[in-house]
Amino acid sequence: MACILHIETSTSVCSVAVSEDSHCIYHEEDHSGPNHAERLGSMVDEALSFTDSHAIPFDAVAVSSGPGSYTGLRIGVSMAKGVCYGRELKLISIPTLELLCVPILLGHEEIEENALLCPMLDARRMEVYSAIYDRALREIRPTGADVVTGDTYKEWLDERPVYFFGNGAKKCMEVIQHVNAHFIDGIEPIAKWMQPLAEKRLLNGQTEDVAYFEPFYLKDFVALKPKKLL
Prior knowledge:
alpha/beta; five-stranded mixed beta sheet; 27% strand
């Protein structure tokens, strides 16, 4: 299997983790932010020191690729690239919205088999970045920037249960009143949840060019301007 350093900085939470052979063997979280510029360097140093002290060689670095905070993503990706260059490691990118689904799938057994998952990141006012996945993490609707109204997700809500979560979901509770709409509070993108996604990508050879990789937020900002879905 593999040993992977995970870095997550897409929201105000800063977190770092290390996984080995499908188990998280180290993790640290800072919820006092956003203070990524101050905390991430020391958190990564501590994770590297822990792994080096146990003589565990790294295979790759996984980093959240957005959407999310412009500054947070830039800091996280810069740190990930630096470690990859310094240790000649592979780089794996993990979409932030897909990452948000992992604690839902692992910790909420009550969710129906045919349910859809709609992770949301706050984009101010009534705007969110969101995507829609099924329980196998197949992408039903790709990442987009939505102005949320009562009808924004009606197409999917009319068919089956949809679970909304992430830091953009709370403000949508009073707007989305459909009987099939369910909201789960307290779900954040955290580095320790990256392990299954990162290992799958590494196994399938889905790695990034360290020199040219950019976060999704930066590369596709124009394409993600909020729009109303009709």
